[in-house]
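Operator note (shift B, R.M.): manual run for SGNH hydrolase-type esterase domain-containing protein requested after the automated queue skipped it. Running by hand, logging everything below so the morning shift can see what happened. Input copied straight from the record, untouched. If output looks odd, do not overwrite the archive copy; leave it for review.
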Amino acid sequence: MTDCSLPRVWIIGSSLIARLQAHLGAFGVDQKLRLDCQITWAGRGGRRWEHLMPLLRSKRADIRDDPDVMVIHLGGNSIGTFGNTRISLMRRMKADIREIDLLFPKTKLMFSDILPRWNWRGRTATTGYGHERTRRRLNGAMFGFLSDMDRGSGGGSFAIARDCVREGRGESFKPAAAVTHMLHGDACMHTLNGLHRC
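Run finished. Output pasted below as returned.
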């Protein structure tokens, strides 16, 4: 990073991230979300957690400098899919976070809580209670895991955006409200603080 350059932020996710970027473009809204940084958007509908590492390995091969911050908003599309039990998905997520730390050693990593849904792949929020329980347990496990990794690294390398929206309210399911709230929350602002090189 050159002197006076802005922090570089990657936002990686599924349809929520893709829809937010499209929403910003359609209405001419600042795609930096009024944050003092450079944002690279990588959202794609249907993206699952299993697609994350192939994407990041490809990016690692194509770039020389690490991003300053990487925000990952994935996991919801993997819940309930064939072969993904809560335990197996949790193990994969933890293993991938460890690999990301090795691939991008200079990057501050932020994991966004998996958001609640009205519909889990054809099931309503009521009949999909098992999926909702898995979501909550995954979020709790990742919070503890990343907190431990952050302490082990000396602090400041990992963060988690928790409670970025209030569950059970309409805005929980609006992509612009959810992600913008997350990026302007305490965790993200603390992560971005001090990254300027001017």
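Quick read of the result: The chain has one domain: 8-192. The helical segments are 15-26, 52-62, 86-103, 129-152, 175-183, 186-192.
Leaving this for review. - R.M.
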